[in-house]
């Protein structure tokens, strides 16, 4: 018995170690590589109501599409996976464990594997994938399947980085089910396996590149609000790797709305975007629109009232030909809810400016 257990353990170690370098790898899509890895868990004992059954074993095979390169501190794309597995059941009809489970009303047994992998080079610190399946009570083998995505990985250092460390172990959950698919009163069965040997195996290596320097452009901006176009002067647009950046529009512009469609007004308007985030083709930012100065029929109603603001969200899309390096035009839209902080003139300012579908055009110089 000891020799058989030792042989099974050594075989599991050899399988895991060999899978690190011998299983297939190849192209999956641009910027990714497809890898295949295996794992096994031998010599496990399953217990229910004080009755045990030894020599259970499980294994899995997983295919993952993983990034072959990354940029430091920039999350990668999620990594799709597809996994299959099998579980050798030792619960033949007439065995004590089978009889205990059958007496609880079980007709099938469900199994789930959760395989943890460590990512010590950044965040998150660990990820996992899962596979599951069911088999009739009394079967000698249970097949499992699973698919999904590992979350994006972030690397905090540059150079060649090992990741997804497999520690020669995974967690089992075994649940006897009644004919209607609900668990029996036994709940999950107890599972205990011999501990794996110390040490783990990295499944993948990523070449992590330094982040490119931010690109900064001088821009001019015009906004369409209150029924007309307002020149906001010059500002700056800074774009970073990972589709983040800043848009600074420090100047105010003069808007010329009309009250009730008849009475001319004049207002100073400033747009203050927050941090830009998004995708390579579209960016969003929190936006504060302030009206510090307002006059109607030449009568000043607000003067230096920087608290008179409306907060919203700005969406920017790239016009044809725009590139991060060379610039171009970004076209934006934003809705303006009611203004606050304007003293007794909240309603007046809102009636002049608060409406949906306002625009912003930002062009590099």
Q: What is the topological layout?
A:
Blueprint lengths: L1 H21 L2 E3 L4 E17 L2 E17 L1 E3 L7 E10 L7 H8 L4 E11 L3 E2 L2 E11 L4 E10 L3 E2 L3 E8 L4 E7 L12 E4 L7 E9 L5 E11 L2 E13 L3 E5 L4 E3 L2 E2 L3 E11 L2 E4 L2 E15 L2 E4 L6 E10 L10 E6 L11 H8 L4 E7 L1
Parallel strand pairs: 4-14
Antiparallel strand pairs: 1-2, 2-3, 2-13, 3-5, 5-9, 6-8, 6-12, 7-10, 11-14, 15-16, 15-26, 16-17, 17-21, 18-20, 19-20, 20-22, 21-22, 22-23, 22-24, 24-25, 25-26
Question: What brief labels describe this structure?
Answer:
single chain, 365 residues, mainly beta, Immunoglobulin-like, 2 domains, eight-stranded antiparallel β-barrel, six-stranded antiparallel beta sheet, elongated, disordered N terminus
Describe this structure in words.
The chain is mostly beta strands. It folds into 2 domains: 2-209, Immunoglobulin-like; 215-364. It is built from 3 helices and 26 strands. The chain has helices spanning 2-22, 96-103, 346-353, and strands spanning 25-27, 32-48, 51-67, 69-71, 79-88, 108-118, 122-123, 126-136, 141-150, 154-155, 159-166, 171-177, 190-193, 201-209, 215-225, 228-240, 244-248, 253-255, 258-259, 263-273, 276-279, 282-296, 299-302, 309-318, 329-334, 358-364. Strand 19 and strand 20 (263-273) form a beta hairpin. The termini are far apart. Residues 1-30 have low confidence and may be disordered.
């Amino acid at each position: 018995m000891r020799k058989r257990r030792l042989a099974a353990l050594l075989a599991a170690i050899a399988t895991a170690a060999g899978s690190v370098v011998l299983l297939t790898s190849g192209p999956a899509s641009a910027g990714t590589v497809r890898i295949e890895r295996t794992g096994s868990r031998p010599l496990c004992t399953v217990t229910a109501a004080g009755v045990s059954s030894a020599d259970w074993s499980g294994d899995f095979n997983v295919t993952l599409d993983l990034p072959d390169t990354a940029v430091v501190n920039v999350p990668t794309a999620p990594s799709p996976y597809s996994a299959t597995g099998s579980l050798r059941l030792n619960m033949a009809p007439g065995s004590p464990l089978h009889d205990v489970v059958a007496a609880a009303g079980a007709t099938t047994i469900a199994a789930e594997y959760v395989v943890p992998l460590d990512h010590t080079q950044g965040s998150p610190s660990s990820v996992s994938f899962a596979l599951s399946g069911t088999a009739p009570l009394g079967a000698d083998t249970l097949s499992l399947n699973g698919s999904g995505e590992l979350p994006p990985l972030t690397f905090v250092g540059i150079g060649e980085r090992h990741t997804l460390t497999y520690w020669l172990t995974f967690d089992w959950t075994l649940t006897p089910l009644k004919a209607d698919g609900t668990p029996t009163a036994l709940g999950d069965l107890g599972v205990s396996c011999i501990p794996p040997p110390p040490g783990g195996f990295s499944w993948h290596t990523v070449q992590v590149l330094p982040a490119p320097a931010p690109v900064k452009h001088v821009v001019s901006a015009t906004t369409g609000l209150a029924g007309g176009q307002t020149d906001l002067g010059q500002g700056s647009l800074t774009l970073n790797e990972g589709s983040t950046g800043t848009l600074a529009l420090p100047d105010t512009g003069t808007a010329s709305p009309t009250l009730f469609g008849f009475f001319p007004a004049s207002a100073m308007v400033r747009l203050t975007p927050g941090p830009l985030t998004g995708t390579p083709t579209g960016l969003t930012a929190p936006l504060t629109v302030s009206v510090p100065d307002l006059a109607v029929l030449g009568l000043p109603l607000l003067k230096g009232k920087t608290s008179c603001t409306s907060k919203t969200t700005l969406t920017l899309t790239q016009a044809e030909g725009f590139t991060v390096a060379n610039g171009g035009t970004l076209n934006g839209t934003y809705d303006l809810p009611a203004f606050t902080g304007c003293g007794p003139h909240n309603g007046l300012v809102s009636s002049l400016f608060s409406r949906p579908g306002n625009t912003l055009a930002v062009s590099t110089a």
